[in-house]
Amino acid sequence: MPFARSAVSAFDPDLTDRPAVARQLDFVDHEAEVPMHTHRKGQLILALHGAVTCTADNEIWIVPPSCGVWIPGGMPHSARATANARLNYLFVEPGAAGLPEDCCALSVSPLIREMVDRLAREPADYPTDGHAARLARVALDELVEMPRERFNFPISSNPKIRVIADALTVEPSDRSTSAEWAKRVAMSERSLARLMIRETGLTFGRWRQQLHLVIALRELASGATVQNVAAELGYDSVNAFITMFKKALGSTPAQYFAHRRAGKFITMKNNRLIE
């Protein structure tokens, strides 16, 4: 089997000044770990198959099928892809489109996905007055209209929060209470609760549930069964896990991924999926 190279070495988006360029990567040919790096261009990561987890701006972001994570230019970030991941990257020159100045997950319409896929087959130095240039312009115009999704897990730069986040990322089935975690990081439960709200905007329970959702989306997208994911996350039953998933995303895991596979453009409104 040939040696897998880092995805960072596959393409340098900053060598071109085109407003948008795209590249496709199959992680069968690349290392799953993408080390921390940065580039001038902003980056939209789209998962065609499998999933990828990104770390940027003190948050962990999951990229399940039919969504994308936007990382502004100049922001350090790293990633880990599932073994079956096939991704499209869209690199955007600063100022070329009115995209967010912070990291965010975006719903991505089938139209955008097809345009990015088509642009990935064009050279990085495509003519500025040709078809690829027009395609890039329309793709960017469409992208700025896309709504945000909630596929992030805030981890904070606070050392006590990071200790808990690192531990739960390694062992997500850990059901220790907030009082038990407070004792481990030498704080009172009340102080930890205040710190959690200040640093992440979430209560401890909601914060841990968001981590479970991120992990569940990643594992389900990589082909894991609902039963295995429920067990990995420490749920007493499959039904308890499905209830959590449905409360968070408005549908069961099977319904959610069926919509994604069908290429339907869906987003969230009042905790319910809408088309």
UniProtKB/TrEMBL annotation:
Residues 162-259 form the HTH araC/xylS-type domain. It comes from the Bacteria. Keywords: Activator, DNA-binding, Plasmid, Repressor, Transcription, Transcription regulation. The keyword Signal does not apply. Pfam families: AraC_binding, HTH_18. One of its GO terms (molecular function) is sequence-specific DNA binding. Signal peptide: none annotated. This is AraC family transcriptional regulator. It comes from Azospirillum brasilense.
